[in-house]
Design a protein that fits this description.
Oligomer: heterodimer
Shape of chain B: globular
Largest sheet of chain B: 8 strands, parallel
Distance between the termini of chain B: 55 Å
Number of helices of chain B: 8
Order of helices and strands of chain A: EEEEEEEEHEEHEHEHEHEEEE
Strand order of the largest sheet of chain A: 6-5-9-3-4-8-7
Largest interface: A-B, 24 and 31 residues
Strand content of chain A: 25-35%
Radius of gyration of chain A: 18 Å
Shape of chain A: globular
Helix content of chain B: 25-40%
Radius of gyration of chain B: 19 Å
Order of helices and strands of chain B: EEEEEEHEHEHEHEEEEEHEHEHH
Chain lengths: 292, 311
């Protein structure tokens, strides 16, 4: 198996801005458009599938929070014209493998669902700016719901590697739909499951749980993906408690490279409302600047 | 060695393949060698900053897309300070696409860019369907086109390309007007105005209501307009619309285009332009053609013999 150590590493220039509260810079590989071979495409529960690709080159250097633009194959009457953005669930430069976790919901994912072992698909990436971590942190909290948890899983891995203690608050409809709980647990995370079916996922209870965890653990940072409601809560908490916080946003995209300007969201930076491209300036943004 | 070079007025391009404005950015350097492109055409700028249209700005069609981006622009200052220094390091000519709300605005911007080293030409985007209500633009009429081109020509010696709109009912008249006022070339053309409706919500699928259709579905229409413009013009025509392969590009060259622009295809296949350049060479080899430019306008348009005989 080819390792991808020959890929040129570039330090992300955006991360050097003095106004970025940057703690640790991940080495970012420039994107490439490559044909990756399907190794595994299996159901992990009733709703989600895990796709494992052999993707030597730039792809397997994807950093936590980065994503790919996938050229999903046509499936019967479903013929997606655009690519579909999907965040990296796992990337391993040693094995050259990249993984995605996806819910089969529309034209793009119908095609992905049909992929068989040995087939190939074109993947453009790694794209965007990933999460920021600091080795100085003692503890951080990840809060996710639904497929947002797939985006946060590589961040948990990176935190684990840096010796940062982690609490993962996972919100879901029911216990069966809890994604990646085992993966978070295997990384030594303290996992708290909050469910719709027993009411524990209510906004009030989530806030109560988070305040308790942050107070007990002396958390340094909060991260989330996948829910506007949770994002708003974390923005409020991080501002109130003075904690570093980031969110990975989801948005309709076309090119994934910053060309088409279709994924622009409004952010508030130093009191000024500015448009930023989720694909290029994001998808990870500081909670302080999100306005959704 | 196949000679892929073409002339577009005073500019000699190493090959006829260039990006369409709005579908190209610095980030593509990771995927494309910009020195292998015929020219570098950048996203339309305006003098002032613009935020662009409300979301959603794009929607997917069965074999293409519709957009109403609305020309978000960081303004001319930012472009001159940041973008030009980046692009001028490549040896492919930099063509700056510009737009303005008034005739005078086009002239002011053209004058401003004329003194900037590294800019090889200006493309006047008089055809964006997403700025004024319901697709109105200077390019809809010959008279307003003439005013814009005349005002720009008066203030700049740079090669001036004029991007036409297929939404006009008299595209060749508009093209002739551009030529008469001193345009060096016309680009045929911008997107086709459309309306897509979300029947569940009873609303337009785009935030700006209407939008511009692009992709392979508009290619036959744009090839036809390219042919018609090339028939009546002395200045070169640059073809644009639904090109994703060398075969598509060749249709435009046969129809009379001296060069082509690739747009939507790059969104799906960021390396598409490279592939097209390679395939153009392969086509010439297969056909025993030494110079690609010999294909330009070589379409056999003699009328077919009448079918049958009336008895």
């Amino acid at each position: 198996m080819n390792a991808c150590s020959d890929v040129k590493q570039e330090v992300n220039p955006h991360m050097n801005d003095s106004n970025t509260r940057c703690c640790q810079v991940f080495a970012v590989s420039p994107p490439d458009d490559t044909r990756a071979a399907v190794l595994v495409n299996e159901w992990v529960n009733d709703e989600y599938k895990r796709l494992v690709l052999q993707a030597d080159g730039a792809a397997c250097h994807s950093q936590p929070g980065q994503f790919f633009n996938l050229l999903c194959p046509a499936e019967g009457e479903h013929k997606p014209f655009f690519r579909r953005p999907m965040s990296t669930y796992k990337a391993d430069p040693v094995s050259g493998q990249v993984e995605f976790l996806y819910k089969v919901t529309g034209k793009g994912t119908y095609g992905l669902e049909s992929l068989l072992e040995g087939q190939t698909l074109e993947i453009l990436g790694p794209l965007g700016q990933g999460f920021t971590l600091s080795g100085d942190w003692q503890h951080m909290v990840i809060v996710g719901r639904g497929v947002g948890l797939a985006t946060l899983a590589p961040l948990a891995e990176a935190a684990h590697e840096r010796g940062i203690k982690l609490t993962a608050v996972l919100s879901a409809r029911n216990a069966k739909n809890l994604l990646s709980a085992q993966r978070f647990e295997s990384l030594g995370a303290d996992v708290i499951a909050l469910l719709d079916e027993d009411g524990s996922s209510s906004p009030e209870n989530l806030e109560r749980v988070l305040r308790e965890v942050i107070a007990r653990e002396g958390s340094n940072a909060l991260f989330t993906c996948g829910s506007k409601r949770i994002t708003r809560l974390l923005k409020q908490l991080s501002a109130e408690l003075g904690l570093f916080g980031q969110v990975a946003l989801e948005q309709q995209m076309v090119c994934g490279l910053g060309m088409c300007q279709c994924c622009v969201e409004v952010f508030e930076v130093e009191g000024v409302r500015v448009g930023k491209r989720v694909c290029l300036e994001g998808p990870v943004f500081d909670l302080a600047e999100v306005t959704q | 060695m196949i000679d892929l070079s073409v002339n577009v007025g005073r500019l000699r391009l190493k090959n006829p393949v260039m990006p369409a404005s709005g579908t190209f950015a610095e980030e593509l350097t990771h995927l494309l060698d910009f020195n292998q492109l015929g020219a570098l055409v950048t996203k339309t700028i305006t003098s002032e900053m613009r935020t662009g249209n409300p979301m959603p700005r794009v929607c997917e069609l069965p074999d293409g897309m519709m957009n109403a981006i609305g020309i978000p622009s960081k303004g001319a200052d930012a472009y001159i300070d940041k973008s030009v220094p980046f692009y001028r390091d490549f040896d492919s000519p930099l063509i700056v696409s510009v737009s303005a709300p008034t005739v005078q605005g086009f002239a002011v911007l053209a004058a401003r860019l004329s003194g900037v080293p590294g800019i090889s030409g200006i493309e006047a985007n008089i055809s964006c369907p997403n700025i004024e209500a319901h697709g109105q633009s200077f390019g809809m009429e010959a008279q307003s086109t003439a005013q814009v081109v005349k005002a720009m020509r008066a203030v700049t010696d740079l090669p001036l390309w004029v991007k036409l709109t297929p939404n006009s009912g008299h595209v060749t008249d508009v093209a002739i007007a551009a030529q008469e006022e001193g345009a060096d070339a016309v680009v045929v053309g911008n997107t086709l105005l459309g309306l897509a409706i979300d029947i569940e919500r009873g609303r337009a699928r785009l935030g700006n209501f209407m939008g511009g259709i692009s992709g392979s579905m508009i290619k036959p229409l744009m090839v036809r307009l390219t042919y018609q413009c090339a028939q009546v013009l002395k200045i070169p025509v640059i073809g644009c619309g639904g090109i994703s392969t060398a075969d598509d590009a060749l249709e435009y060259l046969f129809a009379g285009a001296s060069a082509v622009q690739v747009g939507t295809a790059t969104f799906i296949h960021p390396k598409a332009m490279h592939l097209i350049v390679d395939e153009l060479s392969a086509f010439c080899r297969r056909k025993g053609i030494a110079r690609l430019s010999s294909i330009i306008g070589s379409l056999d348009d003699s009328l077919a013999a009448p079918f049958g005989v009336q008895s």
